[in-house]
Amino acid sequence: MFDLPDHEILQLTKDHVFFTWSAQAKVNPIAVRRAKGVYFWDVDDKRYLDFNSMTMCVNIGHGDERVIKAMQEQAAELPYAAPGMTTKIRALAAKTIAEVTPHQALTKILFTLGGADANENAIKLARGYTGRHKILTRYRSYHGATAGAMAATGDPRRVVWEPNLMTGVVHFLDPYRYRSNFHRNNNDISEQDFARDYLNHLEEIIQYEGPETIAAILMESVTGANGVIIPPDGYMQGARALCDKYGIVMICDEVMSGFGRTGKWFAVEHWDVVPDIITMAKGLTSAYAPLGAVAMKPEIAAAFNETPFESGLTYTSHPVSLAAAVANIQAMRDDQIVQRVAGMGPVLKRMLTDLGEAHPSVGEVRSIGLFGILELVKDRKTKEPMAPWNSSSPAMNALKKYCLDHGLFLYAHWHTVLVIPPLIISEEQLKEGIDILDKALEITDKETHG
Ligand SMILES: Cc1ncc(COP(=O)(O)O)c(C=O)c1O
Q: Which residues line ligand 1 (CB under 6 A)?
């Protein structure tokens, strides 16, 4: 459709594109031409196995014709309508999303463009609903890069923008067992007691801050980029109970953990908890088009029955994105993707465990569904990470390079390697990637001194 010789793509990109999260002089992007299933190809026709679903978002895999066709038909029929209007696809998308929420209890849907603005709107809703200001979030979290979502974010990406961010956010600690300072001499503590200790910590913070000032607790149900931290049993139930006790809105950020990633539609279902609000994006359309959503209980929406919700977006409910969402959810249902992931979860866990047993540089592996991580360490006893906090290291860079050179695209973050493939991946394809990783880990093994 648009002609440009391959060799000009990189140069024109360097001349004119400003990259996010990057020092401009150092960007070296892969020039992608096409993608299908769990693979993508660059302009030199080199094939990559996608072990990160691009940005942890192409949940149903690349090139699904059903989703593409739905978008094409919607674009031909009606590509856009104003936010105050409605369309067939808007009605259908909201109903379809409400149906997959836990116990179908989150019945009203506000559409956004992605995850950050979903969290921004969830915060506004909670503040409006409670008349309170403060938002509690965890340190090991990422909630998006707009000013409010960045303030909510706990990880170091927030720190560089301070102090010019949204006010009122208070952070607390994550139930992160492998590196829990409270329990470093007590590894045998039961899951229940461990959960209780971190809930007590949360309740202490609620008390210190004043429960009557706290609008919401916002948490990733399973922490994503900050370490695939899977809460111990009892933790999410306990957080729900604290929210009920103090009249606080429970918001689960399922931007990364939602839409089948963990073997449930939403990760919070593993603990049979119904939050008041769920934010979602990424897997909602499997990234075929940009879309986020805030699903809320009817009582939250009802707080705005007479008082207007003073916020909006030109592209809320964009029909082409909504068509992608409905077709994506339909494809997930038709192909029983969620059940499939529940079945593949133990397969990935075994493969990661095997890697952990074979390589001294693997300190711990964690996974739930097709959401996995390896924590790489220099010393298993001291747990000294393979790269310092919020940084990289020559060994981690070499591991990443080895994987890319050998056609495996994955996300290596600080001292961790994440395994977040499209949910349609087969056991053989998973093994294909794990075999490359197996060799790559020889690089980090050489750095161990345990
Ligand atoms: C848990 C979580 N929340 C929010 C976001 C922000 O989403 P977006 O980049 O679509 O704004 C992300 C993105 O990675 C995320 O992982």
A: 114-116, 119, 142-144, 220, 224-225, 253, 255-256, 281
| Ligand 1 atom index nearest CA of 141 | 1
113 CA closest ligand 1 atom index = 10
Burial of residue 105 (number of CB atoms within 10 Å: 0-12, 13-18, 19+): middle
Burial class (CB in 10 A: 0-12, 13-18, 19+), 379: middle
> Where do the domains of the chain lie, and which CATH numbers do they carry?
6-60+336-445 (3.90.1150.10), 66-334 (3.40.640.10)
Ligand 1 midpoint to CA 256 (Å): 7
pLDDT mean over 197-215: 98
- CA atoms of 221 and 83, how far apart (whole Å): 30
pLDDT at 450: 65
Question: What are the CA-CA distances from residue 214 to residues 239, 273, 316 (Å)?
Answer: 14, 20, 28
What whole-number distance in Å separates Cα of residue 130 and Cα of residue 249? 8
CA-angle at 158, arms to 152 and 164, nearest 5°: 85
421 has a pLDDT exceeding 90: yes
Q: Supply the pTM of this predicted model.
A: 0.98
